[in-house]
Amino acid sequence: MHPNNPVSEASNDPGKARLPRRKLGRGTLALLILLRVYVLLAVPVVVYAFILALHQ
Amino acid sequence: MPHDRLELDVHTQGAGESRVAREDQLRARDRQKIHQVRSGGRRFRLLWLLAGPGVLVMMGENDGPSMVSYATTGATYGIGFFVPFILLTFVMAFVVQEMAVRLGAATGRGHAELIFQRFGPFWGYFAMADLVVGNLLTLVTEFVAIQAGGLYFGLPAWLSVSVGLGLVTAALGLRRYATWERALMVLAAGNLLFVPAALLAHPSGAALTHALARWGPLPGGFNLGFVTLVLANIGATVTPWMIFFQQSAVVDKGLTRVDLPQGRMDTAIGAVLAAIAGIATVVAAAPLFAAHVNVARFASGADFATALRPLIGSTGATLFALGIIEAGLLAAMTISTSSSYALAETISARHSLNLNFAQGRIFYGAAIVSTLFAACIVVIPGAPLLAITLTVNIIATLLMAPALLFLLLLVNDREIMGSLANGWKANIAGGGIVLAISLVGAFYGVIIVFPNLLAG
Questions:
Q1: Is residue B295 within 8 Å of B72, Cβ to Cβ?
Q2: Closest to B70 (Cα-Cα) out of B212, B225, B211, B277
Q3: How far is B112 from chain A (nearest CA, A)?
Q4: Rounded CA separation B45/B37 (Å)
Q5: What's the rounded Cα separation, in Å, for the pair B191 and B60?
Q6: Are B62 and B191 in contact (CB under 8 A)?
Q7: All domains of chain B, ordered by start, with CATH?
Q8: Is residue B132 a contact partner of residue B366, using CB atoms and an 8 Å limit?
Q9: Residue A2 pLDDT grade (very low, low, confident, very high; cuts 50, 70, 90)
Q10: Phi, psi of A25 (to 5 degrees)
Q11: How far apart are the C-alpha atoms of B157 and A13, rounded to whole Å?
């Protein structure tokens, strides 16, 4: 990319080079899994609250 | 003058391809104008040209369910704790969205694209599942708002929903990012209709000052209703679609590292305007609290307008109903576009509002199909629309924690961010928001499952 060149700046080509995959550390992986579990537990609770609200 | 005239006939991809894509030509034209204005030292004109994604994302998040949450807050608690709390949520929103702007300007890639490339498809599909579920549910509630506002003016549901669907599709038909953005900014100004509605409620300046200074009063104290409204008000301000939308819009608009100050200013202006509209909605609905009106049985945002008519007058009630329609319409446009950007980035399809329909079949198709789906749900007789509306913001808050973690990991990734990576202050702010949202969400879950915890 040429700095300050409107044409090169403007390119939004989805075929541009893929970024390399990042290696996730143990702590990061644990956090990602923890929050995923949090969402998987929370969604049924919200659905339960939704059903309760329907019957009130 | 190197940028006075653009040479568009340059090589961009392979040796055989000698023409720049239409979307890149249009973006290049916008960039050229920005270069000229910047070199001319016209600061306000530069801000005007670069503003858009921040204002749209913040005003777009003042959507149908958000305005219903704010109105419910005003009608349940009056002018008190939630006025400064809403301000705080918009500070949170600014912190989060500034990171999205930085990420987009530094990498030139959308959020979904970055998650897939840096974390792989396993985590990418989880993030997309959160986004798709959240966006589809939210889109339904936007059409609930459009339908409800229409009902206030005596329009049948099918008509207002059809008009809404037509307008969302027509906006996509502009096939030009800059025009789409400016058209939506005009529509976004309608969010400020809640300000005159609030003034017609004749709020007490002393009560507002007391609320801002003392974070009170909080009638009824700490109970399930309070926690639900805290979650709903957070969900009314920070949601996953905002991150995906603003980052992709920043890339589509062509913002680069040098445009970051204006990108931040755009986001800050959006946050201030949206906070004003949010607080105005609380203030406009506060007379319902003073009149002890029970809003628990209200079916939609339009019921607030109807109930407010004897209290703030028909002009105020009409402004309120129009504001609800605007909120739903603008959000339907921005949220459906956020889904389109994310889907197209995921499957490496072209993604830009500068594309024509033939080039952007997947991009435009995703927006139109998801909008059509939401519109069809709303016109199903007997669909539990109010319950969906109130639940959507809570779901958005719960889905926000993992979305924020991805955002934090990406803005700390020095390989892609370079010198624009997060500093320790931004990490503390971002980490604090993740923790706060997770804890409030977990607390909500606990008291739903064990309601007697707060009974004593």
A1: yes
A2: B277
A3: 12
A4: 7
A5: 9
A6: yes
A7: 1-41 (no CATH), 52-454 (1.20.1740.10)
A8: no
A9: very low
A10: -75, 170
A11: 41
Task: Count the helix, strand and coil residues of chain B and give each as a percent rounded to the nearest 5.
Answer: 80, 0, 20
ipTM, 2 dp: 0.81
Q: What is the pLDDT of residues B184-216, one digit of tens each?
A: 999 999 999 999 999 999 999 999 999 999 888
Task: Return mean pLDDT, chain B.
Answer: 88
Cβ count within 10 A of residue B133: 15
Inter-chain residue contact B402 with A19, CB threshold 8 Å = no
Q: Best residue in B119, B138, B355, B433 to probe A by mutation, most A CBs within 10 Å?
A: B119
Please provide residue B254's backbone torsions phi and psi, each rounded to the nearest 5 degrees.
95, 20
Does pLDDT of B1 surpass 50? Answer: no
| Residue B64 scores a pLDDT above 70 | yes
Span of B117-131, B390-404, B428-442 with lowest mean pLDDT = B390-404
Count the residues in chain B.
456
> What residues of A are in contact with residue B415 (Cβ under 8 Å)?
19-20, 22
Would you say B217 and B433 are in contact if contact means Cβ atoms under 8 Å apart? Answer: no
The pLDDT of residue B393 is 74
* pLDDT value of residue B29: 85
Is the pLDDT score of B342 beyond 80?
A: yes
Interface size, chain A vs chain B, as Cβ–Cβ contacts under 8 Å: 125
Rg (chain B; Cα; Å): 22
Q: Give chain A positions within 8 Å (CB) of B8.
A: 7
pLDDT at B106 over 50: yes
C-alpha distance from residue A18 to each of A21, B111, B412 (Å):
9, 14, 19
Hey, what are B392's tokens? 């959507």
| Domain ranges across chain A | 23-56
